[in-house]
Amino acid sequence: MVASSGPPPAGVIIPPPELRTIVDKTASFVARVGQSFEEKIKEAEKANPKFCFLDTNDHYHAYYQWKIQDVRTSDASGGPGKTFFLSYTQSSNQILFDHCLVEENC
């Protein structure tokens, strides 16, 4: 799970745990890598309901946008240090996110 600086604002719908993991990791990578990464995911996963939050009309999109901002704020304020390794593959319709806490020496 991606570290957070606090709860989302009132009215933001939090995804269920199994989807929140995907939303949080995607938001973390988009916050660090940039908007072009989101565009790649949108194109590759347009038929995958697990990535519906990328649609601006989806009810979890506000949470996703908040999470991107939260990660950027956390990084700018010296939040938890993580090293991220990105593996993006379209084979078998999977996007793999791997991360490693620096303190864990992995």
Primary descriptors:
106 residues; alpha+beta; Arc Repressor Mutant, subunit A; two-stranded antiparallel ribbon; 3 helices; globular; disordered C terminus
| Helix-strand topology string | HHHEE
Rg is 14 Å
- Report the span from N to C terminus: 17 Å
What share of the residues lie within helices?
Answer: 40-55%
Q: What can be said about the biggest beta sheet?
A: 2 strands, antiparallel
Q: How many beta-strand runs?
A: 2
Shape: globular
- Count the DSSP helices: 3
User: Strand order within the widest sheet?
Assistant: 1-2
CATH class bucket of one domain = Mainly Alpha
CATH structural architecture of one domain: Orthogonal Bundle
Strand percent estimate: 5-15%
Query: What is the CATH homology-level superfamily of one domain?
Result: Surp module
Mean pLDDT: 77
Q: pLDDT below 50 for ≥5 consecutive residues: which ranges?
A: 80-94, 97-106
CATH topological fold name of one domain: Arc Repressor Mutant, subunit A
Structural class: alpha+beta
Provide a descriptive summary of the structure in words.
By secondary structure, the chain is of the alpha+beta class. It has a domain at 17-79: Orthogonal Bundle (Arc Repressor Mutant, subunit A), CATH 1.10.10.790. The chain has helices at residues 17-33, 35-44, 61-76; strands at 82-88, 95-101. It has a two-stranded antiparallel sheet with strand order 1-2. Helix 1 crosses helix 2 (35-44) and helix 1 crosses helix 3 (61-76). The longest helix has 17 residues, at 17-33. The chain is globular. The model is unreliable at 80-94 and 97-106 (pLDDT under 50).
